[in-house]
Amino acid sequence: MRVFFYSMALFFAGCLLLFFAGSLDSKGVSKALVLLLGMPGSILALLGLMAISVTLCQYAFSGGFDYRERTRLFLEMLVLAEKSGQSIEQTITEFSKRGNQSFGGQYDQVARHIESGLTLPEALDKESGCLPARTVATLKVGHESGRMSTILPVAREGLREKGGEQPHPDAEYLVAVFAAATVIVGILMTYVIPKFKWIFADMLGEGEALPAFTMWVISISEAAKYFALPSLAVVGFLICASLIRRISGPPLKDQMVVLVRCWVLVLSAGFLLSLLLRDWDPFIGFGFTATGLAVGSCIGLCVIFFCDQMGWVDGVRYLIPWCRKRLQRDFSHMLAILLDSGISEEKALELAAESTANGVIKQRAQKAIAAVRSGTGMVKAVQLMDDSKEFQWRLTNALQTEFNFVDALAGWHESLSARADRQQQTYVAVMQTSVLFFLGLIVGSIMIGMFLPLIVMMEKLAW
Question: Is residue 137 assigned to a domain?
């Protein structure tokens, strides 16, 4: 915050010089003196404004984006500790005792829990939201199996996929196309078509009516004015809430902190713009906009948090084909590691399901565990988790060997990853084509509907 106050002082110093130069100019003082004071004032004010903007942006977003970065660095520290032969718990406590605040206060609390005698998974459970649920579950599997060195790379890979460190470029293009299409259709429906309606009202004579297709387009436009804007607002608020949740982490309190920071950022931008223009309209406009977005995003965050607590988000994620295949891959990979470690089949199924942090997988795992306890073979029990013929064939061959599940199922895991990537790419390509097709269809229908009355009138004049 010290940098912020320095930036504010720089900005107000520049504004003070500009005000003083303006007062001298009004009194008829030499232009050279006014220029001598005004130019440095302008430079100082602009530099201060830029510094304030950068500081506020960092204040608004750095805490959110640091959540993923802190998690990644924490896992890197665990990997280095494992390679050096030092225990993970000892590494965490020593790092905390040095007074390094790179990971934040929650990690210090984790270190305190470890010093009190808790294991790493137990300490992470005490500090909910310190790490993503999937990462915590994966570390728990490593602790239970005693193969932390093998589990840590899996946790890092899962964090990279879930955190989106390598976003799909086609997905970004799809979002841009969809946003452009929404804006274009919205302008046509709410601004262009009503103009044509007024023109047609002046052109039609008594007893004349517009073509049925034109009336249909106009009725859709009138309905869009009442329903489209609220619908887009709801979708926009949910998107904003999803972005805030993604960059801030699972705890609701952290999401609210990022939301307040964004509100302060927009409000400060309006305040600075009003000071430069000497007009409070921008501040009022920015204030209403920021408050509206904050309230809507807050409601969206509460809705998403409720759905997550009810397990509906896990159900939706499992229904998405490529997400389901990645969940199946993660479950199978963990199951193979645990079975190779000599853990019992029941415990292996339970821990492998927990490592996915998905409610649907956990429910299916309970059914598989019940089947194993009833005397059903492992292959039959796993059918309740994944009924694909290839997986059953590979697992059957793996069960005929001794402690070689990871190698036997490696090809299956690579196949699932490739299929998931291919399905995601296919979906993005189909959505791109569909959005462009429907955009062309809507724009074409609007043009036909608006020009059809003119064509009918020209045909009447020709006769």
Answer: no
